Structures are given as structure tokens and as C-alpha cells.
């Protein structure tokens, strides 16, 4: 399969602090790739470099074939991004948010209308389409934000802690949307600190103190570390011990 993301010893330092330390991995086109780790492990720093929002200190990375140092504008055109904090404008309506972000990505008027209607119908938001986003429950907001991140049919979508603060049922619905996007060929790069969400990914990279400590399928990781849960894998890595 084609590689959507390729990194080699990608490093980011802030003064003497090393936020990400020589991380090396690749992500296949259409893969659901999980970046797992505790808060402060370096996940958000890594995702911001890959999105072209933060310049690396050293190392290399290519996103959809584009270089993270020299081709950040091209990268931004082929990716979608959903930030850790809610990323839509709460003082705009549902419909206005969809059209605003679609316009940023260059959709014409006909496509904007078609996409707006499609998203509103898929999310069953017809009754609130012309209400301010601020009035929506958090779960609805997050599902809308994910749909907006896909409005321009990006090759890769980066999701930074997308289900933080939502209830388990909404989390499950959100992951159903992720699977549907991946089935259409979109690469999903998702950071999370929820151990159970790692089970939903094709492969998982576990970050500890800015380093990738393990990378494999969920079943492969559990087998390698002699445990029956991803939480067990993470606890072993956090203690600095492994069965390898």
C-alpha cells in the first residue's frame, strides 16, 4: 500500500526540553493509526509537525508525499484536522460552519450546498441546522467537527483527542464514523489516551516521554507484552520494562 505518512527520527525541542525524540514510523493509505500515550507524552507536538503547523527541530517527514519543511501549504490542502479543543465557531450556525470551512478549502457554491445538505442529513441535524453551534450538546459538536474536517475529501485526517469528555455511547458513534471514512480510503491518524480506543485501530504507536516505545497491531502488542489489555501494555511500558 502507498504510504500516507513517513517519518524518520522526527524531533522537536523547545529549548532544552525534548518534546518528541527521534520518532520513526509510517502509516499506510487508508489505515486507522493510533497514537497512544498519557497527557504530555508528545502526541500533540507530533501531530502539529505532521500537519505543517510546527517546524521540526530535526529529522524528516513526508505527508501524502509532501515535505514537512518545504511544502506545508500543500500538506494543508490534502489533510483534515480536528484539534484537541473544539474547533468550530460556536457563534455560527451548523450550516454556516460547514460552508465556512468548505469555502476555506476551495469548494465552489454548488459543492458547498451539496456538502452542507449531506452532512446535515447524515448527522440528523436538520432541526438544528440554522441554530448556533454553541447550543448543541458536546457529542453532536464533536461529530459535526469530524464531518467538517472531511468536507474537502482529504487524503489524511488528523484527530487530536477527538473523544475527550464525551460519553461512551457518543464515543462509539464517533468511531463508527471513523470506520466509514477509512472504508472510503481516508487515512485516519488519531491521538488518544483512552486505552480501549487503541483496540479500534489497525496499528498503534505508544508514546512515552516523547519516544515511541512500541508499535504494532493491538493483538500483536498484547501478545508481545504478555497481557490481555492495551492498558496492561501501556503500564508495562510506563514502568520501563517489557517482555522483549
TrEMBL record:
InterPro entries: AAA+_ATPase, ABC_transporter-like_ATP-bd, P-loop_NTPase. This is Putative ABC transporter ATP-binding protein ybhF. Residues 5-234 form the ABC transporter domain. GO terms for molecular function: ATP binding; ATP hydrolysis activity. It holds the Pfam family ABC_tran. Keywords: ATP-binding, Nucleotide-binding. SMART domains: AAA. It comes from the Bacteria. Gene3D superfamilies: P-loop containing nucleotide triphosphate hydrolases (3.40.50.300).
